Amino acid sequence: MILTSDGVHDQMDPTTLENLVRAHQNDAQALAEALVDAAEDGVEDGQPYRDDATTIVIRPLPAPPDTA
Questions:
Q1: Using the 8-state DSSP alphabet, how is residue 26 labeled?
Q2: CB–CB of 39/7 below 8 Å?
Q3: What confidence tier does 23 reach under pLDDT thresholds 50, 70, 90?
Q4: SS3 content of the chain, % helix, strand, coil (to 5)
Q5: Residue 4 pLDDT
Q6: How far apart, in whole angstroms, are the C-alpha atoms of residue 27 and residue 44?
Q7: Contact status, residue 10 vs residue 51, Cβ threshold 8 Å
Q8: How many CA within 13 A on the CB side of residue 33?
Q9: What is the C-alpha to C-alpha distance for residues 33 and 49, in angstroms, rounded to an integer?
């Protein structure tokens, strides 16, 4: 599960987001950091602006071994 603030998902195109998820799919921390790092600065009222960029990545727990 990936949760991002608008400072992340509004600041990158879907292809970049998908590429980062694929590149870091086995490392939740690296994925979260890569998404925040990739968020681009914007412009608001003609001035450079950096929105808060927050990402939480939650990896599912592995299935327990079959003990039957």
A1: T
A2: yes
A3: very high
A4: 35, 20, 45
A5: 92
A6: 34
A7: yes
A8: 5
A9: 20
